[in-house]
Amino acid sequence: MVSLTPRAERLLKALIEQYIADGLPVGSRTLVKQAGLEFSPATVRNIMSDLEELGLIRSPHTSAGRVPTERGYRFFVNTLLAVKPLNTEDVASLEDRFLADQDPQQLIESVSGLLSQVTRLAGVVRVPRRAGAGFLQLDFLRLSASRVLVILVTQDGQVMNRVIHPKRPYSPAELQQAANVFNSAYAGRSLEEVRRSLVAALQRDSEDMQNILRSAVEMAHQVFAGEERGESPLYVSGESNLFAFPELSDTEKLRRLFDAFTAKQDLLHLLDQSMVSQGVQIFIGAESGYEALESCSVVTAPYEVDGQIVGTVGVIGPKRMSYDRVISIVDVTARLLSGALSHGQPS
Amino acid sequence: MVSLTPRAERLLKALIEQYIADGLPVGSRTLVKQAGLEFSPATVRNIMSDLEELGLIRSPHTSAGRVPTERGYRFFVNTLLAVKPLNTEDVASLEDRFLADQDPQQLIESVSGLLSQVTRLAGVVRVPRRAGAGFLQLDFLRLSASRVLVILVTQDGQVMNRVIHPKRPYSPAELQQAANVFNSAYAGRSLEEVRRSLVAALQRDSEDMQNILRSAVEMAHQVFAGEERGESPLYVSGESNLFAFPELSDTEKLRRLFDAFTAKQDLLHLLDQSMVSQGVQIFIGAESGYEALESCSVVTAPYEVDGQIVGTVGVIGPKRMSYDRVISIVDVTARLLSGALSHGQPS
DNA sequence: CCTGGCACTCGGAAAGCGGGAGTGCTAAGA
DNA sequence: TCTTAGCACTCCCGCTTTCCGAGTGCCAGG
């Protein structure tokens, strides 16, 4: 990576902070005044020129000030940024928000709203892939002759359900029996294991399989199929906060961005990506690799249940965002969420 | 209501259709050419002048063409619009979309996406208030010493669940027993009845109540409380389609609109309002009574389960929308949805 | 009552015009 | 060698001006 003189670093830092604050290209004169530098605008211009050669800043046009490039932001967050820990009352106010909801599913959902409110940007939450969770219980409930409700419960209290239409009617007793067989066979295994086992069972010659169990397997398989093809476990909140930023007000960009929010595909990939490593991750502009996000930055942090990373929380905003604040908030939120999910309830 | 000469009606109809088509104020000359009228621009101007006095159209400024006012649109949809029934292949393609999903809950959710796709506007769906549905079964599942998962199933196959934290630990056997008592007491009653009965039971002196049943009641009550305060049963899709309309591209309006989409409160009220009467309803601009929707029109139709209105589907777009097309689509969709929900599965 | 004609109005695009902010360069001073 | 003041230059931005054309309202003749 590039190395800069201390002075140049100081200058770059001041410039980026200024630009983050008001979004206007910043020139040498204003920079000197604003940052209280002890050297003259001319000197600043020289240094700026160097920074521009290094690709850290650029001028939008000949006679405007400079704005940070993506490389500039990257350098800024990598080496210039002192992430100030959130002051205690901020942390406390965040903590308060975590006590309100007890249901883990709801809690997780609410976090995206929480993030968007305190950062005034868009908040996202990637909820755990259920396939990894432990299987607890399966229930078959007869709704009518042709419709059976399958309810699948995981050990962490998540519930999936699905109405299926079996090929022949079953009596409640049969259904009960099927569920029992199923539950005793798979109790405590992970959903992924259950799934693999099911696939194997279905491929095996099943002539000698009891009809009822076979149905149970088929039903459960349908549940997994439904899981598989989507209901994408991703929540986005506060999208409309992004209207406030003039650099995003180009209608076409906005449309792309909102399409990405609803399509969710790209966001999912991005958040999954950030699940592999621990701690806060930052994607600046094109770094995310998705066109729709190219004028945005994304700050993410994975959260855990009992030491195991299961999902990601994050914030999406313009590249010009208060990284220090956002980073702390995302970090603390991920920690708090991990805590809230790991040990039952506080009281 | 105002009455117009046949010629004026024809003119107004042509004008509005033209304006709907391209969104430009339409002048006398273009109107004559476009609509193939057999009288001259001057005559058209005279008639337009009359229409303007009646408040059906207006000029944005002295020398632009005319655009419809809200009254104009209203008159248009009330008396000028011949809702052409959808041609059969369109209906068929809609029907196809209803076969894919079988789970009623999922089906209902998917309809908003369907509507937004075929109209290229925003689709909304108000899902049934679950309180009216019939109670089928309650289950208590022990997740840990301090956490119990409550699962409540209605007769139409909807599942609600919630994790609660009882004051003292219960054994699986106790939970099972509690569920049994509860289920035999309330099987088949409507949720509303169950709820009322619960409240009464809780108020009654409960000293002599078995501790376990009391807990069951409390748990179930918590489930209802969760139901009560929200999880607003409303789906919106295709919001980003609205970016395409220049008349909505004012950032401030857009922000308001999207805030309304996420707050949902106003939309809920509006859709509830349209549940009271049968058939398609149309709210043009300020008619909806909500500021955020003042440059939009909303077309809604209630849907039923077994003859009973339970929810509403609808479309939100600019006032300048193809009412005939949208009305048919919303109408057919509501009917198809009613059909799909009323009798099990087709095959 | 319709229609062609005509003067008029007004918005919007293009063009012109400072002013100002900011730059790069140069030359002098530390 | 580095800093700084000075200066010419550039180019955006906001302002006005101009011009064009679409559209109107009105009038007078069919």
In short:
2 copies of one chain form a homodimer. Chain A has 347 residues and is α+β, with helices and mostly antiparallel strands.
Give an account of the 3D structure.
The structure is a homodimer of 347-residue chains. With 347 residues, chain A is an alpha+beta fold. The first copy, chain A, folds into three domains: 6-80, Winged helix-like DNA-binding domain superfamily/Winged helix DNA-binding domain (Arc Repressor Mutant, subunit A, Orthogonal Bundle); 88-128 and 233-342, GAF domain (Beta-Lactamase, 2-Layer Sandwich); 131-228, Heat-inducible transcription repressor hrca homolog, domain 3 (Enolase-like, domain 1), CATH 3.30.390.60. In chain A, 48% of the residues lie in helices and 18% in strands. Chain A is built from twelve helices and ten strands. Chain A has helices at residues 6-22, 28-35, 41-53, 70-80, 88-100, 104-119, 172-186, 191-203, 211-228, 251-263, 265-273, 323-342, and strands spanning 57-58, 67-68, 122-126, 135-144, 147-154, 159-164, 234-237, 281-284, 296-305, 308-318. Chain A has a five-stranded antiparallel sheet with strand order 7-3-10-9-8, with helices on both faces. Chain A has a three-stranded antiparallel sheet with strand order 4-5-6. In chain A, a hairpin with a 2-residue loop joins strand 9 and strand 10 (308-318). In chain A, helix 1 crosses helix 4 (70-80). The longest helix of chain A is centred in the C-terminal third of the chain and has 20 residues, at 323-342. Chain A is elongated, with a radius of gyration of 26 Å. The first copy, chain A, starts with 5 loop residues before the first helix and ends in a 5-residue tail after the last helix. The model of chain A has no long low-confidence stretch (mean pLDDT 84). The interface between A and B is large, with 43 and 42 residues. The first copy, chain A, binds a DNA duplex (30 and 30 nucleotides) through helix 2 and helix 3.
